[in-house]
Amino acid sequence: MATHLLGDTTVLTGRTMRHITRSPDTIVTTVITPIAIMLMFVYVFGGAIDTGSVSYVNYMLPGILLITIASGVSYTAFRLFGDIQSGIFERFQSMPIARPGMLWAHVLTSLAANVISLVVVVGVALLMGFRSSAGVPAWLAVAGILLLFTLALTWLAVIPGLTAKSVDGASAFAYPLIFLPFVSSAFAPTDTMPGPVRAFAEHQPVTSIVDTIRDLLAQRPVGTAIWIALAWCAGILVLAYLFAGISYRRRIS
Length: 253
Hints:
By secondary structure, the chain is mostly helical. It has helices spanning 2-22, 25-45, 56-86, 88-93, 99-127, 136-163, 167-172, 174-179, 195-202, 205-217, 225-252.
């Protein structure tokens, strides 16, 4: 059974990956918004925000990476919704294909596409002056957190991809996710925010994830923030996976 699932998932992932290679504008569109935000904040607002001895591009890059992921996973919902509307899911169900493989193909494609987008954004940040003395273990830890966050949001994207009534509804779920880093420690220290806003910013998932990545890249002790960040990512992933499974079974029943 496991071999059957792995083989089917590999074939179906190849199919969805070909959609990416035939539409490279998907990657371009995904990275345009984060790069535009990074350019605006660094060169327009950066001088007005006190981040101490840390350059502003170094300070804000972790938040930009999370926005890149949020922007990228919206295409997962879009592609999944397109498959359902085209009737391809019904055709696959009539074939001896492992059912979970259809969803995992979209999830793995999202991971691959987001990795490419993140590399492009980091490359632009380097041109803008981003520098890090972090070693290989710290960079691997950052990559692991980003991949876990991508996996969690991708399974979250599967739910509207399966349940939305329109293509706009399928991808609109990503807008709140893109906005969330703006009410966190991603762009400004939380102690500069009004009381209620500060309370929300300090207790939402993005702040702990951003703070952990920022400390890792700056070679500072991460403390308990890393465990909070991992708990948020794992919690979102488990809940999203469960609800996506329920939505999928209802869709194919």
